[in-house]
């Protein structure tokens, strides 16, 4: 057994891990321990299985042993190919998410109503779709069609690239990395990393950059923008977080996964009077829907649904014994959930044809019959309430925070400090002024996952606190957001962690110092915010005193995010090294040389305190270069 | 130059000037010579409120310089920048105290210089009742006497208490703005450092009405920010010293509105080049809402004119 004092800083996690151990349930940490030592070849990216002549490995630790694959691929080729494929997979995951949202919008006639027409019109305008004399559902359909064509159009570049500063767009064109169509770029990575294709690590990474940019400025941005259109653009609201949000007396439904189409329907279904009545008949006080991971972020941002937990807490939610159903769709769903659920009454319900789990109940979700299916799923949960067995234990650990900081919400908040006689409203000017004057030193996005190679949550939280102290505003998404809200960093009291400048800004704007901007696809919100700031200042994103960090990243999606951030000109600090360290050339390219090409680069720093120091130095250097 | 660097530079200049003033005063009067402002129980009010120490002699004043010095730490963050602003305020007080130590009557008509405790006590009630809805500190020089008068009279009409520092005093005289405490337009002095005499009004308000314990800087700043509805109009070219004094105002919670090109700070440092909008911009920045209904008559009408005397030549 592992020492849970060291592996997490979260109290609820510690308590439930102990319960899991008592009940002999293996969790992610136990499996990670059993996996030790992990394979060095894989860890360094020096293992290739791309053809059946392999597997091949490059031996670095001694002079003897192979220095090239059977086909002749060098360590540079193998490491860069592996990295590129990971990026392509991440981009594919986000992009498929975006496509599903676009499809949902396409079908948004009749039952599903478009919630944010203003945003719909704005996107239509951006994309050159005429709106005169058309009703919202027709415009929605045209916008959706245009969005869907982004995935496989034959000619032209991605439409959302135009949101980037001109300098950035020109740079992408010069370097030949401006993506054309989302799926196309992912396929091209798979092609060029096939045996006997691309062997030039720089060229392989160039293609990976195209695939990554097609995620950030394509798939993810479509996912975010159209989710806002469909379900409403988030506005600030209070929300509770951590596993203490489960309620003993209620039917607890955990929605876990990524796509808001499912979770939105579940939220609606759980408010159905018939189902509530049914829940009461089963002896429950009500139906308590809570969210996990990114779908949790989506419904928290839009409806204030409690954020039950992050990636590493998914098994522990079931261990409480209080979860009637865990409803999942796609991405970051541990297949172990089926095994854990079997020990309790919990029903694991998969809903996507793209993500089935052996041992789970599959109730396929279809956007067009969304609410009906959602009601059936909720009913399944309600009827399961009486089947609870064993000890129900919900740790009394939860915190509260303010979330819902979409770009639109942020700009509206900034108007609070404009003077109506001296300033325009509706711009990023106050943010730019706060940064230029030095009151804020800069801004950092803390994003990413959980990873057993880093202490759970504490890297996110430590890094955030270190930055706040230095008057650096933190924005966050994904499981970084879960970590921060659990640690109380999204409450007003979190001002006590801030330097005077940031504390003053928070007080004037009435905001917490860590702004929850949404799910992992919502990192696209950060790209748009940075573009607005850069455009206002007349500079490129790479000139801004900003950085990004993924201190506990885990997934291929995180690698795609990291690379599109770098390619957008951002300094990205990773707490866990990607599997490229076997190649010095590839490592140097990603962590050094790329900066002179794209203005952004990766930095590997495991220690969050040192990461904060490096970020602060980076930010001050950018300030100096701007003369501010 | 980055805004904070301008502030640090100005604070250093103020400190150097304060050091020179103290040395010159000691040379003239000796380090045991008394130093005090007239008619106050609060010593040198800014230093007293910030440190809890009452300065009695020039020698003690020299020792106080090290406090000022310790406040100037040129690190790039707001806290240090505001501290440097406070340092400038303290330097200004030291310089002004030296004037009073060396000269019998350092200020003469129309300037009033230091303001006595009695006057502050008399201002307390109208400030609390909102009869004086705000305190405008106008420093520097407007483009012309007409523009200066327009801004000053507008404040006066709205019942605000207006303090003038610098060439704006001459512009007000030129435009025949009637001045005096009873008219709520108070010319302090021509040197930038004389602005400290309005700062100590706010500080003594905190000590007298807010019962803020001397030496509790944090509570002092909270009181001035929340309870003293003051703001600054810095007009005309801005030296590093003025910018750094402005940081001192911001530390007290008073927004600065200027007609010059500077890097704006949301809420606190605002550029307004349109003279017709300086007054509304300032009132909004400080959250001052005027209770008076403006009566459409051809002369100014406000409590500020209550004590006005109509002389023969008028």
UniProtKB/TrEMBL annotation, chain A:
Single Gene Ontology MF annotation: peroxidase activity
What cofactor does this chain's UniProt record say it requires? [4Fe-4S] cluster
Task: State the NCBIfam families in the record.
Answer: CO_DH_cata
What is the name listed in the Swiss-Prot or TrEMBL entry for this protein? Carbon monoxide dehydrogenase
- Gene name tied to this protein: cooS1
Species annotation: Fervidicola ferrireducens
Residues reported in the UniProt entry to bind [4Fe-4S] cluster 1:
39, 47
Broadest EC class assigned to this enzyme: oxidoreductase
Q: What keyword terms does UniProt attach to this protein? A: 4Fe-4S, Iron, Iron-sulfur, Metal-binding, Nickel, Oxidoreductase
Tell me the Pfam families matching this sequence. Answer: Prismane
Listed EC numbers: 1.2.7.4
Q: Binding residues for [4Fe-4S] cluster 2, per the UniProt record?
A: 48, 51, 56, 71
Q: Which residues bind [Ni-4Fe-4S] cluster?
A: 258, 294, 332, 449, 479, 520
Which GO biological-process labels does this protein carry? Answer: generation of precursor metabolites and energy; response to hydrogen peroxide
Q: Which reaction does it catalyse?
A: CO + 2 oxidized [2Fe-2S]-[ferredoxin] + H2O = 2 reduced [2Fe-2S]-[ferredoxin] + CO2 + 2 H(+)
